[in-house]
Specification:
two-stranded parallel sheet, 426 residues, single chain, Heme Oxygenase, Chain A, 69% helix, 2 domains, mainly alpha, 1% strand
């Protein structure tokens, strides 16, 4: 019936929302690049599913717009615990081995009982949710080996964490169409629990060249940005290094989910997913050009610039960089056209479209957050200016050794690219 349906979908919504926030917060603490750039797609898919659920609950309860956890507190206490995992592998395996399969089964059970005529709108998005959960479980299973290889010492704690989660979930009746079978104020003690804290130093994939500054021109004005082949290479390296934006998108989603509520979570999930796509654009171009991961610089200086700062400056940092270079993108697209570089042209074209959306996100949500904090005149540009100063201070701390290291890396890449171009024209 209508009321029962709304209760079930509300339960699913709150579970998805909690897991989205947990995954987003952990992005900066995950090492393998394929995991760091794939989880944002799963986060965005889940956010779209949760949004459909939320909308449907409002339809079924019209005119009420109230969404409260209510009697689901015990279940949600367990789901919230995912973010307090002892390490990134434990969080990852809790998704793969506990929560994603449980949700997939619950959604399939829902479809088997749902009435096509009475509840057709829910059936459409629930069918898609099942398909996406199948794909997500497959992707997470495929990426488990690099996750385990990145931190082999984490396996024991992850084993104990997942086993305890699975047991507690079974004890309360699991995630399904019926409410949890336990008292609403029940809490759970899990082995190795560590209260979540954002990684202030981002985890990096050790297959890359780990540096602070990813190209010489960032810290050395005498090194030209370049045109032609150098511009193509610089663009791809820049896209790869938007990994900092992936981590930052996740960090701000986690930090402000409660303050700015669901509409912000939905936008931040899309923002984080877009940044993951941009990072992957650069990585795939560089791989296609024949570079090995060990040759490619993966920097941290932008993420580092907000170290220990109020999370509002991480939101401001994304806003600053979205608006800093957006006017240059059409010019670079035209340059790639003149070089007959259709791949770089294609990537930059979509990048430009995304960044126009992101600039609007940054302005809107910074203003909303400042207003919530009591500012009478919430001007996002004040935060933007502070972020510019933070970045400049980080750049000014570059050492001669760092300038030398990144220049050698860049010159090696340029030489390799020029040799490849020469070989193609032989």
């Amino acid at each position: 019936m209508r009321h029962d349906t709304s209760v079930i979908l509300k339960r699913f919504f709150f579970i998805e929302q909690s897991l989205i926030i947990s995954q987003a917060g952990w992005l900066a603490g995950i090492e393998p690049i394929e995991v760091k750039t794939t989880l944002p797609r799963l986060i965005w898919q889940d956010a779209k599913t949760a949004d459909d659920m939320r909308t449907r609950v409002f339809e079924l309860r019209y005119p009420s717009r109230l969404m409260e956890i209510g009697e689901e507190t015990a279940l949600m206490n367990l789901v919230h615990e995912a973010r307090n995992a002892p390490n990134a592998l434990a969080l990852y395996r809790s998704l793969l081995e506990v929560f994603k399969p449980a949700l997939r089964k619950a959604y399939q059970d829902y479809l088997e009982l749902a009435d096509e005529i009475g509840d057709g709108p829910s059936i459409r998005f629930m069918r898609l949710a099942v398909q996406e959960k199948d794909e997500q479980i497959r992707l997470l299973a495929d990426m488990l080996p690099p996750m385990e290889a990145a931190t082999p010492q984490a396996k024991g704690a992850a084993d104990a964490w997942v086993q305890a989660l699975r047991q507690h979930q079974s004890d309360i009746g699991g995630i399904g169409l019926e409410p949890a079978e336990t008292e609403s104020d029940t809490t759970f003690e899990l082995p190795g629990r560590v209260p979540f804290a954002l990684a202030q130093i981002p985890a990096r994939d050790h297959r890359f060249r780990e540096v602070r500054y990813y190209w010489p021109d960032v810290i050395d004005p005498s090194f030209p940005y370049g045109d032609g082949l150098r511009l193509q290479l610089r663009s791809a390296i820049s896209h790869l290094n938007e990994v900092w934006a992936v981590e930052t998108g996740g960090a701000l989603l986690h930090a402000f989910a409660d303050d700015l509520e669901w509409e912000f979570v939905l936008d931040a999930a899309r923002w984080t997913y877009d940044e993951a796509r941009h990072c992957t654009m650069g990585l795939e171009r560089l791989r296609q050009w024949g570079f090995d991961l060990s040759e490619l610089p993966l920097g941290t200086y932008i993420y580092d610039s907000a170290y220990g700062q109020d999370p509002i400056y991480r939101l401001g940092m994304l806003y600053y960089f979205e608006t800093k270079n957006i006017k240059r993108k059409p010019e670079r697209i035209r340059s790639f056209v003149s070089y007959a570089d259709e791949v770089s042209q294609h990537d930059m074209d979509f990048d430009w479209a995304d960044e126009t959306i992101h600039a609007a996100y940054g302005h809107h949500w910074l203003a909303a957050l400042l207003k919530k904090r009591g500012f009478d005149d919430p001007d996002p540009h004040l935060i933007r200016a502070r972020c510019e100063a933070l970045v400049r201070a980080t750049v000014d701390r570059a050492t001669d050794a760092e300038r030398q290291e990144i220049r050698e890396i860049a010159e090696h890449l340029i030489t390799r690219a020029e040799q490849r171009a020469a070989d193609k024209h032989k």
